[in-house]
Design a protein that fits this description.
It contains five helices and three strands, in the order αβββαααα. It is α+β, with helices and mostly antiparallel strands. The relative contact order is 0.10.
Length: about 130
Amino acid sequence: MRKNGNNLFDDIKNDDNNPLTGKKYILIDAGGGTVDIACHQFMNNNSVKELYYPSGGPWGDMYVDEPFENILNDLLGNDLLSSVKNDNPNAYFNLLQNFRKTKMHFEDKGDGKLMNVQFPWDFVIAIENYIEW
């Protein structure tokens, strides 16, 4: 199990000969919507000093979702996609989940290979309900 920063500090805060005193580290929290960055230093009084004001920005993986949704709009049209979202939200959610799972396994090796996003069956059926054959 991965330890978070608080647990790591709890392990060493009662050690008078703390080998980390004076050491600096960068903490990066890459969440779904943002990436937050902070720089700290361990102090000899069992505390942490903030070296730089925390910063970050909207660089999380959810910002890849928006271009994917734009592609869906281009392929299916805004009216059709909006209808599916409103009338079959679970089907749309399942599609986004498949996209997110695909993102988790993406690795750009520079070989030009494409990633495939599986359209869930319930999403395909939802679309078929709006198409006139």
